[in-house]
Specification:
The chain is built from ten helices and two strands, in the order ααααααααααββ. With 257 residues, it is mainly alpha-helical. It folds into three domains: 1-127, Up-down Bundle (Four Helix Bundle (Hemerythrin (Met), subunit A)); 133-220, Orthogonal Bundle (Helix Hairpins); 221-257, no CATH class. A two-stranded antiparallel ribbon has the order 1-2. α8 runs antiparallel to α10. The longest helix has 27 residues, at 192-218. It is flat. Mean pLDDT is 75; it is low at 99-105. GO terms for molecular function: voltage-gated potassium channel activity. This is Voltage-gated potassium channel Kch. Residues 25-210 form the Ion transport domain.
Length: 257
């Protein structure tokens, strides 16, 4: 009985069956629900009902985390992955009410659950033709969105208790967007050395990801042209030879006209 239960868990979390894929998509939906929950509750007073829902989400994430560790082949490697650390932060933040309001600032760290999105990339390539066609654009957009939501969560967690300008998640999101787009209206600023260093990180990494998205939208770094010899599909826009087999390729680009 125990062996069958373990086999079923391994199939759901690591298998390649339709049931396993549906299960993992379900976990992604759960992650998105938790993020919507924390954003919505940043605007209202935390009532006993909200704290009870915190506990429910925390127990579910703890259960998911325990199963992931149990089914992992290399458990030490799994425990040091970014998505695993995100799970731990999410669990602590959901269960924080048990330790009192002192750990309340951790609530927003549940947005780190977005890191699980990257584990579904291979499946998205198989399931959705539109994803395969625009994969570079989708990945660049996901990178930017994950950065925005995680950074916004950190800013809110670090600033909302003592910065009068950061009252809720929307204020932190507003600061993140204006900073990474270098608009900088100046009506919201982060205080202290930590705040300034975080602002620098938002500008440096955020602008880089924003420009990357703009590049793939308006000037893709790769073009689709199937090599007649080896079948390689993606090539540099200015390539004259296939970098896999060396065969001459004839890619129609603006530079050829």
């Amino acid at each position: 009985m125990a062996g069958q239960f373990s086999k079923t868990l391994n199939e759901l979390y690591e298998g390649n069956t339709d049931r396993a894929h549906r299960f993992r998509y379900g976990i992604l939906i759960f992650d998105l629900i938790t993020i919507c929950f924390v954003i919505a509750t940043s605007f209202i007073t935390h009532t006993p009902l909200i704290e009870a829902l915190d506990m429910v989400f925390g127990v579910l994430i703890l259960l998911d985390f325990t199963i992931r560790v149990y089914t992992a082949d290399r458990r030490f490697h799994y425990l040091t992955r970014g998505s695993t650390l995100a799970d731990i932060a999410a669990m602590v933040s959901f269960l924080a009410p048990l330790a009192g309001e002192g750990l309340g600032f951790l609530r927003i760290l549940r947005t780190l659950r977005l890191l699980h999105t990257y584990q579904l990339m291979n499946r998205l390539r198989q399931d959705f033709k539109l994803f395969r066609k625009h994969e570079e654009i989708v990945i660049a957009a996901i990178n930017l969105l994950v950065f925005i939501f995680v950074t916004t969560g950190l800013i809110y967690a670090l600033e909302h208790d003592h910065n009068p300008h950061i009252r809720n998640y929307a204020d932190a999101l507003y600061f993140t967007i204006t900073t990474l787009t270098t608009t900088g209206f100046g009506d919201i600023t982060l205080e202290g050395t930590t705040g300034r260093m975080l602002s620098i990180a938002v500008m440096f990494f955020g602008v880089t990801l924003f420009l990357r998205l703009a590049q793939v939208l308006f000037r893709p770094s790769k073009v689709k042209y199937e090599c007649e010899t080896c079948g390689l599909l993606l090539h540099d826009a200015d390539a004259s030879h296939c970098k896999h087999c060396g065969e001459t390729v004839h890619i129609n680009t603006e530079g050829l006209y």
